[in-house]
From TrEMBL:
One of its GO terms (molecular function) is catalytic activity. PANTHER family: GLUTAMYL-TRNA(GLN) AMIDOTRANSFERASE SUBUNIT A, MITOCHONDRIAL (PTHR11895:SF7), TRANSAMIDASE (PTHR11895). This is Amidase domain-containing protein. It comes from Methanobacterium subterraneum. InterPro entries: Amidase, Amidase_dom, AS_sf. Residues 1-178 form the Amidase domain.
Amino acid sequence: MEQVVSQCEEAGHEMVQVSPTFDYEEYLHAVCVAWAFGVHMGMDMFASIMGRKVSEETVEPVMLSFYEYSRRLTAVDMFMAEFALNQFRRNFGEFFQQYDLLLTPTLNKLPEPHGKYSKMRKDLGYEEYMRLCEETKVHTTAANVTGQPAITLPLGQSRSGLPIGIQFMARFGEEDTLIRLSSSLEKEMPWHHRIPPIHASR
């Protein structure tokens, strides 16, 4: 992050350490509710098409937990979740009235061992699974929730050779800003020559 900030400053951009304000726990609950409704709708649809029931024999443990949770939710729950997400979007809207771009890590941590986020895990319920995922990718989910243009670039690299992504989020309709900035950063901080130890070309 520090290298990217320095590169942006050298290019003439004014960098300020600031972030949109929001209640993370409220946001996480709202995302969980919204996702559960989508899971319920999708599973019921495919169960009907395939003529199979949603059960522990047909879906992963984590997804079954989501499905069972979604069946307990009401229309009021969905309304309140959407209200919270709309407030989240408004907070980001206010943020971008003052700033052109938001710079964040793509992920909050380096890649975890295979299976960490597996939906086959029986030790994770729907809430624990969502918390596990969002603690890692909250910045990319934020862009999905607000619908604002965003781009992630592999500008960093771990000691083991894995790419480290940096995300830029822009104002609505300003994809051109992201493209220009990305083009500039790719020239100044190229990554095409970096190949991780495990790669399809090897």
